[in-house]
Amino acid sequence: MAKQILVTGGTGFIGSHTVVELQQAGFDVVIVDSLINSKEETVDNIEKITKIRPKFECFDLADREKVHAFFKKYTSIEAIIHFAALKAVGESVHKPLEYYRNNLNALMNLLECMKEYNVKNFVFSSSCTVYGQPDKLPVTETTPRKPAESPYGNTKAVAEDIMRDFTVANADADMKCLALRYFNPIGAHPSALIGESPVGVPNNLVPYITQTAAGIREQLSIFGDDYNTPDGTPIRDYINVVDLAKAHVVAINRLIEKKNKANYEFFNIGTGNGYSVMELVKAFEASTGVKLNYKVVGRRAGDIEKIWADTTYANNELGWKAETPIGETLLSAWNWEKRVRGIK
Ligand code: UD1
Protein backbone atom coordinates (compact mmCIF):
# COMPACT_ATOMS: atom_id res chain seq x y z
CA MET A 1 0.00 0.00 0.00
CA ALA A 2 1.19 3.52 -0.77
CA LYS A 3 2.74 5.25 2.20
CA GLN A 4 0.75 8.22 3.44
CA ILE A 5 2.44 11.61 3.86
CA LEU A 6 0.94 14.66 5.56
CA VAL A 7 1.94 17.84 3.73
CA THR A 8 1.09 20.97 5.69
CA GLY A 9 0.88 24.07 3.54
CA GLY A 10 0.35 21.76 0.56
CA THR A 11 -1.63 24.34 -1.43
CA GLY A 12 1.18 26.89 -1.10
CA PHE A 13 4.02 27.55 -3.52
CA ILE A 14 6.64 24.99 -2.50
CA GLY A 15 4.06 22.70 -0.89
CA SER A 16 2.00 22.22 -4.06
CA HIS A 17 5.06 21.34 -6.15
CA THR A 18 6.15 18.86 -3.49
CA VAL A 19 2.71 17.22 -3.43
CA VAL A 20 3.04 16.64 -7.19
CA GLU A 21 6.50 15.07 -6.84
CA LEU A 22 5.38 12.89 -3.91
CA GLN A 23 2.36 11.61 -5.82
CA GLN A 24 4.50 10.92 -8.87
CA ALA A 25 6.89 8.96 -6.61
CA GLY A 26 3.96 6.80 -5.47
CA PHE A 27 3.07 8.39 -2.12
CA ASP A 28 -0.46 8.98 -0.90
CA VAL A 29 -0.73 12.64 0.13
CA VAL A 30 -2.97 14.38 2.64
CA ILE A 31 -2.78 18.18 2.55
CA VAL A 32 -3.59 20.39 5.51
CA ASP A 33 -3.79 24.09 4.74
CA SER A 34 -5.69 26.99 6.30
CA LEU A 35 -5.91 28.72 2.87
CA ILE A 36 -4.94 32.07 4.38
CA ASN A 37 -2.26 32.47 1.72
CA SER A 38 -3.35 29.99 -0.94
CA LYS A 39 -6.40 28.77 -2.84
CA GLU A 40 -8.33 25.52 -2.77
CA GLU A 41 -8.32 25.36 -6.58
CA THR A 42 -4.64 24.39 -6.28
CA VAL A 43 -5.94 20.96 -5.24
CA ASP A 44 -7.76 20.73 -8.60
CA ASN A 45 -4.62 21.80 -10.46
CA ILE A 46 -2.49 19.23 -8.66
CA GLU A 47 -5.04 16.63 -9.73
CA LYS A 48 -4.84 17.87 -13.33
CA ILE A 49 -1.08 17.30 -13.34
CA THR A 50 -0.93 13.93 -11.56
CA LYS A 51 -4.44 12.56 -12.24
CA ILE A 52 -4.62 11.84 -8.52
CA ARG A 53 -6.60 14.01 -6.13
CA PRO A 54 -4.77 14.54 -2.84
CA LYS A 55 -6.90 14.43 0.29
CA PHE A 56 -7.44 17.91 1.67
CA GLU A 57 -8.28 19.23 5.15
CA CYS A 58 -8.68 22.94 5.85
CA PHE A 59 -7.74 24.11 9.34
CA ASP A 60 -5.19 26.13 11.28
CA LEU A 61 -2.35 24.03 12.67
CA ALA A 62 -1.86 26.45 15.56
CA ASP A 63 -5.17 25.03 16.89
CA ARG A 64 -4.02 22.14 19.05
CA GLU A 65 -7.40 20.40 19.33
CA LYS A 66 -7.77 20.33 15.56
CA VAL A 67 -4.31 18.87 15.07
CA HIS A 68 -5.12 16.07 17.53
CA ALA A 69 -8.46 15.47 15.81
CA PHE A 70 -6.61 15.18 12.49
CA PHE A 71 -4.29 12.44 13.77
CA LYS A 72 -7.26 10.58 15.29
CA LYS A 73 -8.84 10.55 11.83
CA TYR A 74 -5.71 9.73 9.80
CA THR A 75 -4.08 6.83 11.61
CA SER A 76 -1.56 5.69 9.01
CA ILE A 77 0.54 8.81 8.41
CA GLU A 78 4.11 7.67 7.77
CA ALA A 79 5.79 11.09 7.62
CA ILE A 80 5.07 14.80 7.82
CA ILE A 81 6.44 17.59 5.64
CA HIS A 82 5.77 20.86 7.38
CA PHE A 83 5.62 23.89 5.06
CA ALA A 84 2.71 25.80 6.57
CA ALA A 85 4.05 29.05 7.99
CA LEU A 86 3.90 32.81 7.66
CA LYS A 87 6.88 34.05 5.64
CA ALA A 88 6.81 37.78 5.01
CA VAL A 89 10.00 39.18 6.51
CA GLY A 90 8.78 42.81 6.72
CA GLU A 91 5.36 41.93 8.11
CA SER A 92 6.96 39.81 10.83
CA VAL A 93 8.74 42.90 12.17
CA HIS A 94 5.36 44.58 12.73
CA LYS A 95 3.48 41.48 13.90
CA PRO A 96 6.04 39.42 15.84
CA LEU A 97 3.52 37.68 18.10
CA GLU A 98 1.48 36.53 15.13
CA TYR A 99 4.61 35.03 13.60
CA TYR A 100 5.80 33.32 16.77
CA ARG A 101 2.29 32.07 17.62
CA ASN A 102 1.56 30.75 14.15
CA ASN A 103 4.88 29.29 13.19
CA LEU A 104 5.94 27.87 16.53
CA ASN A 105 2.58 26.63 17.84
CA ALA A 106 1.94 24.78 14.59
CA LEU A 107 5.35 23.14 14.83
CA MET A 108 4.94 22.15 18.47
CA ASN A 109 1.42 20.80 17.91
CA LEU A 110 2.73 18.60 15.11
CA LEU A 111 5.71 17.33 17.10
CA GLU A 112 3.48 16.60 20.10
CA CYS A 113 1.19 14.58 17.85
CA MET A 114 4.13 12.77 16.26
CA LYS A 115 4.94 11.41 19.65
CA GLU A 116 1.40 10.71 20.71
CA TYR A 117 0.37 8.99 17.46
CA ASN A 118 3.76 7.43 16.75
CA VAL A 119 4.68 9.17 13.50
CA LYS A 120 8.46 8.98 13.33
CA ASN A 121 9.48 11.12 10.37
CA PHE A 122 9.37 14.91 10.03
CA VAL A 123 10.78 17.16 7.30
CA PHE A 124 10.84 20.89 7.91
CA SER A 125 11.09 24.00 5.67
CA SER A 126 13.97 25.97 7.03
CA SER A 127 15.79 28.81 5.33
CA CYS A 128 19.24 30.11 4.54
CA THR A 129 18.10 33.12 6.56
CA VAL A 130 19.51 31.27 9.61
CA TYR A 131 23.03 32.08 8.31
CA GLY A 132 22.43 35.86 8.18
CA GLN A 133 25.30 37.48 6.23
CA PRO A 134 27.92 34.72 6.43
CA ASP A 135 31.57 35.67 6.97
CA LYS A 136 32.67 33.15 4.35
CA LEU A 137 31.04 32.07 1.09
CA PRO A 138 29.69 29.71 -0.06
CA VAL A 139 27.92 28.50 3.09
CA THR A 140 28.30 24.91 4.18
CA GLU A 141 26.28 23.18 6.88
CA THR A 142 29.14 23.85 9.30
CA THR A 143 28.88 27.62 8.74
CA PRO A 144 27.69 29.04 12.06
CA ARG A 145 24.17 30.41 12.32
CA LYS A 146 23.85 34.11 13.07
CA PRO A 147 21.25 35.94 15.16
CA ALA A 148 18.10 36.42 13.08
CA GLU A 149 17.39 39.79 11.47
CA SER A 150 13.61 39.44 11.76
CA PRO A 151 10.98 37.60 13.83
CA TYR A 152 10.29 35.49 10.73
CA GLY A 153 13.94 34.48 10.53
CA ASN A 154 13.97 33.78 14.24
CA THR A 155 10.99 31.42 13.94
CA LYS A 156 13.15 29.30 11.59
CA ALA A 157 16.14 29.29 13.95
CA VAL A 158 13.99 28.51 17.00
CA ALA A 159 12.13 25.81 15.05
CA GLU A 160 15.45 24.14 14.26
CA ASP A 161 16.38 24.21 17.96
CA ILE A 162 12.99 22.81 18.95
CA MET A 163 13.40 19.90 16.51
CA ARG A 164 16.93 19.19 17.73
CA ASP A 165 15.80 19.11 21.37
CA PHE A 166 12.71 17.07 20.51
CA THR A 167 14.77 14.36 18.78
CA VAL A 168 17.19 14.21 21.71
CA ALA A 169 14.35 13.85 24.22
CA ASN A 170 12.65 11.17 22.10
CA ALA A 171 15.68 9.25 20.84
CA ASP A 172 14.39 6.03 22.41
CA ALA A 173 11.23 6.30 20.29
CA ASP A 174 13.39 6.96 17.19
CA MET A 175 11.71 10.27 16.36
CA LYS A 176 13.53 11.88 13.39
CA CYS A 177 13.52 15.43 12.07
CA LEU A 178 15.27 16.78 8.99
CA ALA A 179 15.47 20.48 8.12
CA LEU A 180 16.01 21.68 4.57
CA ARG A 181 17.54 25.15 4.50
CA TYR A 182 16.19 26.58 1.27
CA PHE A 183 17.99 29.32 -0.56
CA ASN A 184 15.70 31.38 -2.88
CA PRO A 185 12.99 29.17 -4.45
CA ILE A 186 11.64 30.46 -7.77
CA GLY A 187 9.90 29.27 -10.93
CA ALA A 188 6.82 27.15 -11.49
CA HIS A 189 5.76 23.71 -12.67
CA PRO A 190 6.40 23.19 -16.42
CA SER A 191 2.65 22.57 -16.89
CA ALA A 192 2.05 26.17 -15.67
CA LEU A 193 -0.84 24.77 -13.60
CA ILE A 194 0.80 25.56 -10.25
CA GLY A 195 3.18 28.35 -9.28
CA GLU A 196 3.71 31.24 -6.90
CA SER A 197 0.66 33.39 -6.14
CA PRO A 198 1.51 36.07 -3.62
CA VAL A 199 -1.45 37.81 -2.00
CA GLY A 200 -1.28 41.56 -2.77
CA VAL A 201 1.94 43.30 -3.78
CA PRO A 202 4.77 40.73 -4.02
CA ASN A 203 7.67 41.03 -1.59
CA ASN A 204 9.91 38.63 -3.46
CA LEU A 205 11.88 39.43 -6.58
CA VAL A 206 10.65 36.94 -9.18
CA PRO A 207 6.88 37.42 -8.65
CA TYR A 208 7.56 41.15 -8.84
CA ILE A 209 9.43 40.65 -12.11
CA THR A 210 6.70 38.50 -13.69
CA GLN A 211 3.94 40.87 -12.55
CA THR A 212 5.86 43.82 -14.00
CA ALA A 213 6.30 41.92 -17.26
CA ALA A 214 2.55 41.22 -17.24
CA GLY A 215 1.78 44.92 -16.75
CA ILE A 216 0.25 44.51 -13.29
CA ARG A 217 3.11 46.48 -11.70
CA GLU A 218 4.42 49.50 -13.48
CA GLN A 219 8.07 49.17 -12.61
CA LEU A 220 10.42 46.86 -10.79
CA SER A 221 12.44 48.59 -8.09
CA ILE A 222 15.95 47.21 -7.73
CA PHE A 223 16.83 47.70 -4.10
CA GLY A 224 20.34 49.10 -4.21
CA ASP A 225 23.32 48.88 -6.58
CA ASP A 226 25.99 49.99 -4.12
CA TYR A 227 26.72 46.61 -2.56
CA ASN A 228 30.15 45.05 -2.59
CA THR A 229 29.36 42.75 -5.54
CA PRO A 230 30.58 42.86 -9.17
CA ASP A 231 27.58 44.89 -10.43
CA GLY A 232 26.63 46.37 -7.06
CA THR A 233 23.31 44.48 -6.70
CA PRO A 234 22.84 41.74 -4.07
CA ILE A 235 23.57 38.10 -4.85
CA ARG A 236 21.33 35.11 -4.04
CA ASP A 237 21.18 31.42 -4.89
CA TYR A 238 17.93 30.99 -6.86
CA ILE A 239 16.69 27.41 -6.89
CA ASN A 240 14.03 25.94 -9.18
CA VAL A 241 10.94 24.98 -7.19
CA VAL A 242 10.56 21.57 -8.87
CA ASP A 243 14.20 20.72 -8.09
CA LEU A 244 13.50 21.84 -4.53
CA ALA A 245 10.32 19.73 -4.37
CA LYS A 246 12.35 16.69 -5.41
CA ALA A 247 14.72 17.25 -2.48
CA HIS A 248 11.74 16.63 -0.20
CA VAL A 249 11.00 13.27 -1.79
CA VAL A 250 14.63 12.30 -1.23
CA ALA A 251 14.48 13.52 2.38
CA ILE A 252 11.31 11.54 3.07
CA ASN A 253 12.81 8.36 1.63
CA ARG A 254 15.98 8.90 3.67
CA LEU A 255 13.96 8.99 6.90
CA ILE A 256 11.54 6.20 6.02
CA GLU A 257 14.39 3.94 4.90
CA LYS A 258 16.40 4.92 8.02
CA LYS A 259 19.37 6.15 6.03
CA ASN A 260 19.73 9.20 8.27
CA LYS A 261 23.02 9.65 10.13
CA ALA A 262 21.50 11.41 13.13
CA ASN A 263 17.97 11.88 14.43
CA TYR A 264 18.19 15.59 13.65
CA GLU A 265 19.84 16.59 10.39
CA PHE A 266 19.91 19.70 8.23
CA PHE A 267 20.95 20.38 4.64
CA ASN A 268 21.56 23.38 2.39
CA ILE A 269 19.23 23.23 -0.57
CA GLY A 270 20.45 25.55 -3.29
CA THR A 271 22.23 25.38 -6.64
CA GLY A 272 25.70 26.48 -5.57
CA ASN A 273 25.52 29.44 -8.00
CA GLY A 274 25.00 33.06 -7.05
CA TYR A 275 23.14 35.51 -9.32
CA SER A 276 22.89 39.23 -8.73
CA VAL A 277 19.52 40.98 -9.00
CA MET A 278 20.71 42.65 -12.22
CA GLU A 279 21.88 39.33 -13.66
CA LEU A 280 18.52 37.79 -12.86
CA VAL A 281 16.67 40.64 -14.58
CA LYS A 282 18.89 40.22 -17.66
CA ALA A 283 18.43 36.44 -17.63
CA PHE A 284 14.65 36.94 -17.46
CA GLU A 285 14.74 39.27 -20.46
CA ALA A 286 16.97 36.89 -22.41
CA SER A 287 14.90 33.77 -21.77
CA THR A 288 11.44 35.32 -22.22
CA GLY A 289 12.16 38.04 -24.79
CA VAL A 290 10.20 40.50 -22.61
CA LYS A 291 11.82 43.85 -21.73
CA LEU A 292 11.43 44.82 -18.12
CA ASN A 293 10.77 48.31 -16.88
CA TYR A 294 13.05 48.70 -13.88
CA LYS A 295 14.76 51.37 -11.84
CA VAL A 296 17.48 51.23 -9.23
CA VAL A 297 16.27 52.68 -5.93
CA GLY A 298 17.68 52.69 -2.39
CA ARG A 299 18.51 49.59 -0.39
CA ARG A 300 15.73 47.60 1.33
CA ALA A 301 16.12 47.46 5.10
CA GLY A 302 17.30 44.09 6.37
CA ASP A 303 18.69 42.80 3.06
CA ILE A 304 21.98 40.98 3.15
CA GLU A 305 24.63 41.55 0.51
CA LYS A 306 25.34 38.08 -0.80
CA ILE A 307 24.75 34.45 -0.07
CA TRP A 308 24.94 31.20 -1.98
CA ALA A 309 25.15 27.58 -0.98
CA ASP A 310 27.86 25.02 -0.94
CA THR A 311 25.73 22.04 -1.93
CA THR A 312 28.43 19.37 -1.61
CA TYR A 313 26.93 17.81 1.49
CA ALA A 314 23.38 17.65 0.07
CA ASN A 315 24.70 16.35 -3.27
CA ASN A 316 26.80 13.60 -1.72
CA GLU A 317 24.69 12.66 1.26
CA LEU A 318 21.21 12.95 -0.28
CA GLY A 319 22.24 12.06 -3.82
CA TRP A 320 20.25 15.12 -4.91
CA LYS A 321 21.28 18.00 -7.16
CA ALA A 322 19.53 21.08 -8.55
CA GLU A 323 19.44 20.63 -12.32
CA THR A 324 17.27 23.21 -14.06
CA PRO A 325 19.11 26.07 -15.78
CA ILE A 326 18.18 29.55 -14.57
CA GLY A 327 16.75 30.60 -17.96
CA GLU A 328 14.36 27.65 -18.02
CA THR A 329 13.32 28.38 -14.44
CA LEU A 330 12.58 32.05 -15.20
CA LEU A 331 10.65 31.05 -18.32
CA SER A 332 8.53 28.67 -16.23
CA ALA A 333 7.70 31.54 -13.84
CA TRP A 334 6.69 33.69 -16.81
CA ASN A 335 4.56 30.94 -18.36
CA TRP A 336 2.75 30.56 -15.06
CA GLU A 337 2.14 34.31 -14.76
CA LYS A 338 0.85 34.38 -18.35
CA ARG A 339 -1.57 31.52 -17.71
CA VAL A 340 -2.90 33.12 -14.52
CA ARG A 341 -3.39 36.47 -16.26
CA GLY A 342 -4.74 35.02 -19.49
CA ILE A 343 -1.85 36.43 -21.57
CA LYS A 344 -1.18 34.60 -24.84
C1 UD1 B 1 13.74 36.50 1.95
C2 UD1 B 1 14.28 35.84 3.18
C3 UD1 B 1 14.17 34.35 3.09
C4 UD1 B 1 12.74 33.99 2.83
C5 UD1 B 1 12.31 34.63 1.54
C6 UD1 B 1 10.86 34.30 1.27
C7 UD1 B 1 16.10 36.86 4.39
C8 UD1 B 1 17.55 37.19 4.39
N1 UD1 B 1 15.66 36.20 3.34
O1 UD1 B 1 14.69 36.23 0.92
O2 UD1 B 1 14.56 33.74 4.28
O3 UD1 B 1 12.62 32.59 2.75
O4 UD1 B 1 12.46 36.05 1.65
O5 UD1 B 1 9.97 35.24 1.71
O6 UD1 B 1 15.39 37.15 5.31
N2 UD1 B 1 14.59 42.65 -4.68
C9 UD1 B 1 14.51 43.78 -5.48
N3 UD1 B 1 13.28 44.25 -5.81
C10 UD1 B 1 12.11 43.66 -5.38
C11 UD1 B 1 12.21 42.50 -4.58
C12 UD1 B 1 13.46 42.03 -4.24
O7 UD1 B 1 15.53 44.35 -5.88
O8 UD1 B 1 11.03 44.16 -5.71
C13 UD1 B 1 15.91 42.09 -4.35
C14 UD1 B 1 16.21 42.06 -2.87
O9 UD1 B 1 16.79 43.24 -2.45
C15 UD1 B 1 17.15 40.86 -2.78
C16 UD1 B 1 16.72 39.94 -3.93
O10 UD1 B 1 15.95 40.75 -4.78
O11 UD1 B 1 18.47 41.28 -3.01
C17 UD1 B 1 15.88 38.78 -3.46
O12 UD1 B 1 14.82 39.25 -2.65
P1 UD1 B 1 13.61 38.32 -2.17
O13 UD1 B 1 13.05 37.60 -3.34
O14 UD1 B 1 12.68 39.16 -1.37
O15 UD1 B 1 14.30 37.22 -1.27
P2 UD1 B 1 15.27 37.37 0.00
O16 UD1 B 1 15.13 38.68 0.65
O17 UD1 B 1 16.62 36.94 -0.44
Topology:
Layout lengths: L3 E5 L4 H12 L3 E5 L8 H10 L4 E3 L6 H10 L3 E6 L6 H6 L1 H22 L3 E7 L23 H19 L6 E7 L1 E3 L18 H9 L6 E4 L11 E2 L1 E3 H16 L7 E6 L5 E2 H12 L5 E4 L14 H7 L7 H16 L3
Parallel strand pairs: 1-2, 1-4, 2-3, 4-5, 5-6, 6-11, 7-10, 8-13
Antiparallel strand pairs: 9-12
Helix pairs in contact: 1-2, 1-8, 3-5, 5-6, 7-11, 9-11
This protein binds uridine-diphosphate-N-acetylglucosamine (UD1).
The site of uridine-diphosphate-N-acetylglucosamine (UD1) has 20 residues, from helix 7 and strand 8.
Provide a concise account of the structure shown.
With 344 residues, this protein is α/β, with parallel strands linked by helices. The protein has helices spanning 13-24, 41-50, 64-73, 89-94, 96-117, 151-169, 205-213, 241-256, 277-288, 312-318, 326-341, and strands at 4-8, 28-32, 55-57, 77-82, 121-127, 176-182, 184-186, 220-223, 235-236, 238-240, 264-269, 275-276, 294-297.
Question: Could you explain the architecture of this structure?
Answer:
The chain is α/β, with parallel strands linked by helices and 344 residues long. 40% of the residues lie in helices and 17% in strands. It is built from eleven helices and 13 strands. The chain has helices at residues 13-24, 41-50, 64-73, 89-94, 96-117, 151-169, 205-213, 241-256, 277-288, 312-318, 326-341; strands at residues 4-8, 28-32, 55-57, 77-82, 121-127, 176-182, 184-186, 220-223, 235-236, 238-240, 264-269, 275-276, 294-297. The chain has a seven-stranded parallel beta sheet, with helices on both faces. Strands 7-10 form a two-stranded parallel sheet. Strands 8-13 form a two-stranded parallel ribbon. The mean pLDDT is 98. The chain binds uridine-diphosphate-N-acetylglucosamine (UD1).
